[in-house]
Specification:
Low-confidence stretches: 1-15
Helix content: 25-40%
Number of helices: 14
Shape: elongated
Largest sheet: 6 strands, mixed
Strand content: 5-15%
Number of domains: 3
Structural class: alpha/beta
Bound molecules: zinc ion
Distance between the termini: 62 Å
CATH class of the largest domain: Alpha Beta
Radius of gyration: 35 Å
CATH superfamily of the largest domain: Ribonuclease H-like superfamily/Ribonuclease H
Order of helices and strands: HHHHHHEEEEEEHEHEEEEHHEHEEHHH
Length: 388
C-alpha cells in the first residue's frame, strides 16, 4: 500500500509541480522594527496587490508578491520613516519599466536605415509635379536665331555670342525686393559684369535636341555596390546653352566620394560660371560624354537611391530619367514642420539643421552632396530614435 501511494505521489509530482497559491487572508510578515500598525500594513499590502494586478493582470500570486514587497519596506523602516519609504517604493513600482536601449549591429542599423530611405523615395507623380523629367521628351530644337540672355534679359544673336559685349547683372537671387548679392533693389546698378551673354535650354524638347535623355533602367543595368548616393553636378555656359561639366557622387553610408569626374561640354565655353561651378578651364582630364556615363554606371544602377537638393536640374543636365530619388528640397523641412509649403535652399537647411555654413565661397559639388546626405542622415537618425 505504502509503496503504491509513494508511486502515485511521484507520478503526481511529475505531471503537476506544486503551485504557489495566494493566501486567503493577508498577513504581514513579522518584523522587529515596529514600522506601523498591523491594520496599516495590511492596507498597504492591499494597495500593492491592486497596483500589481493593474500592471500585470495575468499575475497568479499578487498577494504573496505584495506581502514580500511590503516586508522589504517594513524591514528597513522605522515608525518615522515607514510612510515615506512606502510612498517612494510605490512611485518606483507604478512607473513603467525603463526600456533597455537596444544595441544594434552595424548591419542591422544599415537595414533599418535602408528601410526608411526607401520609404522616403519620392513618388513619381510628385517628382513630375516638381519638374522632374520622367519620360523621354520629343526633340524640339529652338530654330530662332536669337536667344534671351538669362542674366540681363537682353536679346542677342546666337552667332554673335562669342563676340565681346557687355552683360551686366546681379548674380544673386532676389529676396523681399533686394538682390542677395549686393542688397541692391530692382533699379540698382547691377553688381556683376561679363563680356558675353549666356542662355539656358528651357524646354525638355530643347534639351533633348542637344543630347538625348536615357532611362537609367536601360543604361545602368550592372548592379552597383552603392545603394544610396549623394549626387551633384556642376554646369558651365556654352554656345549650346547650359551644359554638364562635373559629376560628383558620395556614398551615403561611408560618406566617401566614389566619383568625381569632369565632363567635356559639346559647345564652346562662353562662361565657366566659376562662382557656382568652381571650374576655371577645360583640360585633358575632362572626359567625353560617353566616357562619363560609363564611369557613372560603375557606381550607380537603376535602383540606386540618389540624394540631392533639387536633383531635377542635375538629372536633366545628365539627361537621365531616374525614379529613385530623395530630394531634400521637397522632403525637408516640411515633413517635420508645419507652415507654408516652400522650397528651402540647401544653404538654409544646412545652417538650420546641421549648423553648417556652406556655399560661402565657390560652389563645391562635394560640399553640396555631403550637406544633402548629412541632412537626410540627421532626419533618419531622428526617425530611428523615434522608432526604437
Ligand atoms: Zn548684385
Ligand atoms: Zn546678358
Amino acid at each position: 500500500m505504502s509503496a503504491k501511494r509513494s508511486n502515485e505521489t511521484l507520478d503526481e509530482d511529475k505531471s503537476k509541480k506544486p503551485k504557489l497559491e495566494d493566501p486567503k487572508y493577508i498577513l504581514p510578515k513579522p518584523v522587529t522594527t515596529f514600522p506601523a500598525t498591523l491594520p496599516d500594513r495590511k492596507k498597504n499590502i492591499e494597495y500593492i496587490v491592486n497596483l500589481l494586478t493593474k500592471k500585470d493582470p495575468s499575475l497568479t500570486t499578487p498577494k504573496l508578491k505584495a506581502i514580500e514587497i511590503e516586508y522589504e519596506i517594513a524591514k528597513k523602516s522605522s515608525n518615522a520613516t515607514y510612510k515615506t519609504i512606502f510612498r517612494q517604493e510605490m512611485y518606483k513600482l507604478s512607473k513603467p519599466p525603463k526600456p533597455s536601449p537596444k544595441i544594434l549591429s552595424k548591419h542591422e542599423m544599415k537595414v533599418r536605415e535602408m528601410k526608411i530611405l526607401k520609404e522616403w523615395v519620392i513618388p513619381k507623380e510628385k517628382l513630375i509635379k516638381f519638374g522632374y523629367t520622367m519620360e523621354i521628351p520629343k526633340s524640339e530644337p529652338n530654330e530662332k536665331i536669337t536667344r534671351e540672355c538669362c542674366r540681363c534679359r537682353t536679346e542677342f544673336r546666337l552667332k554673335q555670342q562669342l563676340e565681346p559685349t557687355t552683360c551686366e547683372f546681379h548674380h544673386g537671387t532676389r529676396q523681399k525686393g533686394k538682390y542677395i548679392c549686393c542688397l541692391g533693389d530692382m533699379n540698382s546698378t547691377p553688381c556683376s559684369k561679363t563680356n558675353n551673354h549666356v542662355y539656358l535650354l528651357n524646354t525638355p524638347g530643347e534639351k533633348q535636341a542637344l543630347k538625348s535623355f536615357q532611362y537609367t533602367t536601360d543604361i545602368f543595368k550592372t548592379k552597383s555596390e552603392y545603394k544610396v548616393l549623394g549626387i551633384d553636378c556642376e554646369m558651365v555656359y556654352t554656345t549650346e546653352g547650359f551644359e554638364l561639366a562635373r559629376i560628383t557622387a558620395i556614398d551615403y553610408f561611408s560618406s566617401k566620394e566614389v566619383l568625381d569626374i569632369f565632363v567635356k561640354p559639346f559647345g564652346e565655353v562662353v562662361d565657366f560660371n566659376t562662382r557656382y561651378s568652381g571650374i576655371k578651364e577645360i583640360n585633358d582630364s575632362f572626359l567625353s560624354w560617353d566616357e562619363s556615363m560609363e564611369k557613372l554606371g560603375m557606381v550607380m544602377d537603376s535602383s540606386t537611391i540618389l540624394i540631392g537638393h533639387s536633383l531635377e536640374s542635375d538629372l536633366d543636365i545628365m539627361r537621365l530619367v531616374h525614379t529613385n530619388v530623395i530630394d531634400t528640397s521637397i522632403l525637408f523641412p516640411n515633413r517635420w514642420e508645419t507652415g507654408p509649403m516652400r522650397k528651402w535652399s540647401l544653404k538654409d537647411l544646412a545652417s538650420k539643421f546641421l549648423s553648417r555654413s556652406i556655399q560661402s565661397g565657390e560652389h563645391d559639388s562635394s560640399e553640396d552632396s555631403l550637406a544633402a546626405i548629412d541632412l537626410v542622415k540627421h532626419f533618419v537618425k531622428k526617425e530611428l530614435d523615434r522608432k526604437l
